[in-house]
Design goal:
membrane; mainly alpha
Length: 362
């Protein structure tokens, strides 16, 4: 659990083979969790609304309500450290980083509500394309906050993702769910875009927090990342809990379960699995940022747009209109453009490093 982040590897001796294997395992594990959360979370959230659920704050609460699941790995990490060193700290994260994680948690809670409110009025297949614009926002905010370089290909990707969202916006009446007015659809459309923008800001801020945590020679480990995510999940859930109390959602749950189209038992099954899959999403996202970087997390979220689209058509019987097809093609084009740019940059950097090493040898 105490594998170090790879960002400062140039300042430390090369890690042993066991450390590299653990690093690859963590990358695969977090990519897997992010994949499950990206595809499964939105489907179950939309299923909740389409089968009789109406509580937006409850849906938002479920997106981070699974944070207690992190208590197990965090406790296991502490016990492991305690076995090696009886004086090991209970909490690895410094107070100022915990405070930053609390602020990020509140921002995540607000993002959860924006997303849940938007998803209550727009289909998953539309929401997935709109959420893909978070890559554009991530590129922009990563440039401002963590100084990630902008290239012609990344700017092209931003432009294509923006045009894709505009194409959807010009045909708002083509895929409105039954019972949703044009005004409600537009509200859901704009709130989903706002959710994408806010999460595009949160991702670079998480990476910036990691860099601040690494100040003073401190090692950032995966155990610290889980502690941060636990704090973020707690405060995001607390934010949504306040909304549920004000909106009387807790009192309405039992009544809503009885009226749920799939039955009371399946109502609670949908809620539980929503919480689990969304926790996979958030833990996977911060884990990918830790193991790789912010923009790779954005790419991975965007790359599963077509998977979510297909699953929504198969399981929720949503319409796949020509406008969605054009928007999806533009999104994938933008994603391919950005991914090729990242690949070219990585290849050039590797070649330069090899030439520098050869020059220093001679």
């Amino acid at each position: 659990m105490d594998v170090e982040a790879p960002k400062d590897s140039d300042q430390r001796p090369a890690p042993p083979a066991r450390g590299k294997a653990m690093q690859r395992f963590l990358v695969a594990l977090n990519c897997g969790m992010l994949t499950l959360g990206t595809t499964g979370g939105p489907l179950l959230s939309r299923l909740y609304f389409s089968k009789g659920g109406h509580r937006k704050w409850l849906s938002a609460w479920l997106e981070t309500g699974g944070w207690p699941l992190l208590l197990l790995p965090v406790a296991a990490s502490y016990l492991s450290r305690r076995a090696q060193d009886p004086s090991a700290l209970v909490v690895l994260t410094p107070p100022r980083i915990l405070l930053a994680a609390a602020g990020l948690g509140l921002a995540t809670g607000a993002d959860d509500f924006l997303y849940a409110y938007g998803l209550s009025f727009v289909p998953v297949s539309t929401s997935a394309i709109l959420i893909s614009t978070q890559l554009a926002f991530t590129v922009f905010f990563a440039f401002l906050i963590v100084r990630q370089r902008l290239t012609a290909l990344s700017v092209n990707a931003v432009a294509l993702l923006t045009v894709g969202a505009v194409v959807l916006g010009l045909h708002v009446s083509s895929d409105r769910p039954a019972g949703v007015s044009k005004g409600q659809y537009w509200l859901g459309f704009l709130l989903t875009l706002a959710a994408a923008a806010l999460y595009g800001l949160v991702l670079p801020l998480i990476e910036l927090t990691y860099k601040r945590a690494a100040g003073g020679g401190r090692v950032v480990t995966y155990a610290l990342v889980m502690e941060m995510q636990l704090v973020m999940g707690f405060f995001a859930t607390a934010f949504c809990t306040v909304g549920m109390i004000v909106n009387n959602d807790f009192q309405a749950i039992s009544r809503e379960a009885q009226a749920f189209e799939l039955g009371e038992a399946r109502y609670y099954t949908v809620l539980v699995w929503s919480a689990i899959l969304w926790q996979f999403f958030f833990l996977g996202a911060v884990g990918v940022i830790f193991c790789v970087h912010t923009l790779f997390a954005g790419i991975l979220i965007a790359v599963f747009i077509p998977v979510t689209e297909v699953l929504a058509v198969i399981f929720l019987h949503e319409k796949f209109t020509s406008e969605k097809g054009v928007a999806l093609a533009l999104s994938l084009w933008g994603l391919a453009s950005y991914s090729y740019g990242e690949y070219s940059d990585a290849k050039a950097a590797k070649k330069k490093a090899a030439l520098d090493a050869q020059a220093s040898h001679w």
